[in-house]
Design a protein that fits this description.
Strand order of the largest sheet: 4-3-5-8
Oligomer: single chain
Strand content: 5-15%
Low-confidence stretches: none
Number of helices: 21
Structural class: alpha/beta
Distance between the termini: 74 Å
Largest sheet: 4 strands, antiparallel
Number of strands: 12
Helix content: 40-55%
Length: about 525
RNA sequence: GGCCCCAUCGUCUAGCGGUCUAGGACUCCGGCCUUUCACGCCGGCAACACGGGUUCGAGUCCCGUUGGGGUCACCA
């Protein structure tokens, strides 16, 4: 039985790199008909875990990455919080102590630092002298009488190599002599991550540990712990990390300012910021950041699109397939086809993927996605009046591919504001409405518009074409002025769709108003 | 610095010794479509880091160099 896990620390946000790791774990489990477990690594947490965990769980729920065991769903191995598993860790520490795979160490931080410095001064690798290692009860008593307190350290081998097969990297080898006697239990009795992780993976019967490359060098000590405990170590697969936009370092939430200097990343961020601002939302870098998954949800990306983008970051099926539904991802995913080298986060490709998904989204779903944004922006009442559905549906049809994320609907506010509060883009107004011939043409065409029957796209188009011909002018001489008069903007959805959606009354009122202002 | 990992167009990637005059996608640049914008369509630019081997033959295997990265905690 394949059982994989993702083990987030409750940090209050879900990082895109973390999601990619979780996604690969999830896909691997689902592909093999196995289970995906969520375990909470909160051994070092003083703050409110529940509060800091919620955004992470929400993120996974939004993405549709479901877990078979873990917070909120529980399971046969509950609890899934490391902070609640101290007794298991304690038992493991005791067993390690008994078998001699670990020892109590009474050195002080200063003494240890002195040894480290000495090693550095002599330009040799630091190897702890084990001078304050207590092997007997008498040793311990003596050290304690000196007022010392103990940590528990691993008694790592100092000869030979730790060799294992990584499912992505192939055979990997580490010399035991380079390993330190890592601390597994602190002075205060709490245990450290490596011990906890190994114990949990065994207790939860994790078969495959798929995690970021940064853990590769942690693997020897974890295998040592497992072996010393008489446990069969899981299979390991170390994923390359997700690199920052335009760079080669690991992408990090804290480097937003740096990433903003990257044009594509900046575009992605600004686009999102405009939407968030239109929603009246406070934009602060701690939560509103394209490195954090929430960003995409708030701005109106499709979870499927994000996932599709992410799955291709370090994995591919073949030389051409780019689109994967969840089912297809699950069907085709394999660790053999995961790349060894880091993959850079590319905002443009993400947006292109999103755009494709949005195009393919059925109209009904698009409407359902977009309406909440209009409500949050105060442009549509909650609950929405019954004419909203058909109107938005018609508008989306007219807007076609212009709506790339749900929040883009907020760039079409002209369809939702009252005629008298429509804002005119000053530059556009100056250029197209205040120019010499515009006003008389608008006035003349307004009279035609007042008569058209029915007032729909086809008829208004016919009407305008006839008007243009009778006046002996070109389309361009009036249509731009008309657009600005009616929408306030120089760009937007098709002219005649716009007229139809706005309706005769609004169109006439807006033309009148524009002529007055001109 | 020690140890470990990695290396194909700007980016994501295909390539598992000959079918590679290196394929696809995103971006970019032309052109078409067009009332604007977006879409769409057509076309184009663009890569095997370098040096040695092995081999009849190397992007593909080996070694080295260079470059990039990860990691060296009583963090996870």
């Amino acid at each position: 039985m394949v059982r994989t896990r993702f083990a987030p620390s409750p940090t209050g946000y879900l990082h895109v790199g973390g999601v990619r790791t979780a996604l690969f774990n999830w896909l691997y489990a689902r592909h093999h008909g196995g289970q995906f477990i969520l375990r909470i690594d909160d051994t070092d947490q003083q703050r409110n875990v529940a509060e800091a965990l919620q955004p992470i769980l929400d993120g996974f729920r939004w993405l549709g990455i479901d877990w078979d065991e873990g917070p909120e769903v529980d399971g046969p191995h509950t609890p899934y919080y490391q902070s609640q598993r101290a007794s298991q860790y304690q038992a493991a520490v005791e067993r390690l102590l008994e078998t001699g795979a670990a020892y109590r160490d009474y050195s002080t931080p200063d003494e240890l630092a002195a040894e480290r410095d000495a090693a550095a001064a002599e330009k040799r690798d630091f190897v702890y002298s084990r001078k304050w290692m207590a092997t007997t009860a008498e040793d311990a008593a003596r050290f304690e009488s000196e007022g010392r307190t103990a940590v528990v350290r691993l008694k790592m081998p100092r000869e030979g190599t730790c060799a294992f097969r990584d499912l992505i990297r192939g055979d990997v080898e580490f010399a035991w002599s380079r390993e330190q006697d890592h601390v597994i239990q602190r002075t205060d009795g709490t245990c450290l991550y490596h011990l906890a992780s190994v114990v949990d993976d065994a207790d939860f019967q994790i078969s495959h540990v798929i995690r970021a490359e940064e853990h590769l060098s942690n693997t020897p000590r974890q295998r040592f712990i497992a072996q010393s405990l008489g446990l069969e170590p899981p299979h390991f697969a170390h994923l390359p990390y997700v690199a920052e936009p335009g760079g080669s370092q690991k992408i990090s939430k804290r480097k937003l300012t740096k990433y903003l200097k990257n044009r594509d990343f900046n575009d992605l961020f600004q686009h999102g910021t405009a939407i968030a601002t239109a929603l009246g939302r406070q934009v602060n870098a701690d939560t509103f950041n394209p490195v954090i998954v929430d960003f995409y949800r708030e701005v109106g990306y499709l979870a499927d699109a994000l996932l599709n983008y992410l799955v291709l970051l370090g994995w591919s099926l073949d030389d051409k397939t780019e689109e994967f539904s969840r089912a297809e991802m699950i069907q085709h995913f394999s660790l053999e086809r995961v790349n060894k080298s880091p993959a850079g986060f590319d905002p443009q490709k993400l947006r292109a993927t999103q755009a494709r998904y949005m195009q393919a989204l059925p109209s009904k779903q698009k409407v359902a996605m977009v309406v909440p944004f209009l409500q949050q922006a105060g442009l549509v009442a909650s609950p929405p009046p019954c004419e909203t559905g058909p109107m938005v549906s018609r508008l989306l049809e007219a807007a076609d591919d212009r709506i790339k994320v749900a929040g883009d609907i907020l760039s079409l506010t002209e369809f939702f504001v009252a005629d008298e509060s429509l804002e005119y883009d000053e530059k556009a107004f100056e250029k197209r409405v205040r120019k010499p011939d515009a006003k008389p043409l608008l006035v003349a065409f307004r009279a035609e518009l007042a008569q058209v029957e029915p007032f729909d796209a086809a008829s208004t188009e016919q009407c305008l074409r006839a008007f243009v011909e009778s006046q002996g002018i070109k389309m361009g001489q009036i249509i731009h002025a008309l657009r600005v008069a009616v929408t306030g903007k120089a760009v937007g959805v098709g002219m005649f769709d716009t007229l139809e959606i706005l309706g005769r009354e609004s169109c006439l009122a807006r033309i009148d108003r524009a002529c007055r202002l001109a």
